[in-house]
Amino acid sequence: MIVKKAFVFSGKRVIFTLSTIIILTAALLVGSSFLSDSTPVFNGGERNGVRPIQIVTGEFTAKTPEGKTIETYRWDPGTIFVKEDELLKVSILGVNGKEHPFIIEGLDKAGVVKQGSETVFDLQFDKPGVYRLLCTTHKDFKSNGPMIAYFIVMEK
Ligand SMILES: [Cu+2]
Prior knowledge:
23% of the residues lie in helices and 42% in strands. By secondary structure, it is an alpha+beta fold. The strands form two sheets. Strands 3-9-8-5-6 form a five-stranded mixed beta sheet, with no helix packed on it. The N and C termini lie far apart (73 Å). The structure holds copper (II) ion (CU).
């Protein structure tokens, strides 16, 4: 009797294990089909052919074992992939730091991001390459940077 019960129990266990494997496999297949269809890099919510790029200013702070506070300002995100000739509308929200004057190297683009307000401008790259969005106040470690974001411009 005991042996029979043990057999029934292990039979249920086998069915449970098998159905778990089937469900997990089905979930994996459905999940991977979504992944293969998605193109997150160039599916950034274009409106009328213009892609919005949203950036914020952030700050990392830490205290060293000696009690010294160190900090660095950042653009977030720090790496942005775009296509050659793509029309972009960049908006940068100033969160951390009072003011960030910036330039985009290789382009005739400059401006200022102020805390609590949004700086908005049109942007377009006509050549592939890596372009730096550089805060001229916080450009290296010495000046509480490097506050640099990289536009990776790919061939269309
Ligand atoms: Cu800055």
